[in-house]
Amino acid sequence: MKKKLIELSLLLLLSSALGSCASGRPSYKASEVSETPAAAQSSEYSIGPGDSLEIFVWDHADLSTDVQVRPDGKISTPLVEDLQAAGRTPTQLARDVEKVLQEYVRSPVVTVIMQGFVGEGSQQIRVVGQAVSPSALQFKQGTTVLDVMIAVGGLSEFAAGNKAKVVRRTADGEVEIKVKLRDLLNDGDISQNIKMMPGDVLIIPQSFF
After folding, report:
1. Predicted confidence (pLDDT) per residue in 20-36, tens digit
2. Please, what is the Cα angle at 165 between 161 and 170, to 5 degrees?
3. What is the DSSP string of 19-70?
4. How many CB atoms lie within 10 A of CB 155?
5. How far apart are CA 151 and CA 131, in angstroms?
6. Strand order in the sheet with 65-68
7. What is the pLDDT of residues 91-139, one digit of tens each?
8. Rg for the chain (alpha carbons), in Å?
9. Residue 166's pLDDT band (boundaries 50, 70, 90)?
10. How far apart are CA 177 and CA 6, in angstroms?
């Protein structure tokens, strides 16, 4: 029995090593995260499917409305049909609506007000694997991996928390950041509490023992 456990351990270690090599991503420890290249992200919010918007047309209450961005990324408002909203900033979308309304209204002035946020995938933080409630979270400035773990309910019973990693897209490609979540959550090791970036994917593997 002991021999089989040793063989299984070696097999898992080999599989993990091969998986790391196969990914081709540079790997960092949490303490080295400040050395990773900065992600190429815009500071402006981009509208995503599921977002709730208020389209306000000045002096035209009949053209003003609340609308939710459809799964295809488009919206429809009075006199404006199937206009692309996902991927646009609120200001850009306002100008797009104005261009369409110019055919019907003299010098329209439009304001797009965000009512509910979901955001594009590139502005979310995804948690996959052995969390209590794996999910996609809307990124907020200053979010840390501890904030993320609180939001998803912590580690599941079978999580290999200290083998977790964050996959981050940077200007030079993807990198992996190793994070010891169990040390952070159970022992208060703040060195593991890295800041998250929009588009990060936190992967929590399963423990086999």
Report:
1. 445 567 777 876 665 45
2. 160
3. HHHHH---EEEGGGGGGSPPP---SSPPP-TT-EEEEEETT-TTT-EEEE--
4. 22
5. 10
6. 65-68, 52-57, 110-116
7. 999 999 999 999 999 999 999 999 987 777 677 899 999 999 999 888 8
8. 23
9. very high
10. 28
Terminal Cα-to-Cα distance of the chain (whole angstroms): 14
The answer to whether 100 touches 85, Cβ cutoff 8 Å, is no
* Calpha distance 12→15 (Å, rounded): 5
- Quick one: tokens of 51? 């977002």
CATH T-level assignment (fold) for domain 52-116: wza like fold (3.30.1950)
With 0-12 CB in 10 A as exposed, 13-18 as middle and 19+ as buried, what is 172?
exposed
State the pTM of this model. Answer: 0.60
For a pLDDT cut of 90, what percent of the chain falls above it? Answer: 61
Domains of the chain by residue range: 25-42+121-204, 52-116
- Hey, what are 187's tokens? 């022992």
- 25 CB-side CA count, 13 A: 19
For the domain spanning 25-42+121-204, the CATH number is 3.10.560.10
CA 85 to chain centre: 19
Residue 136 CB coordination number (10 Å) = 14
Q: Are 128 and 103 in contact (CB under 8 A)?
A: no
Q: Tokens representing 38?
A: 């900065």
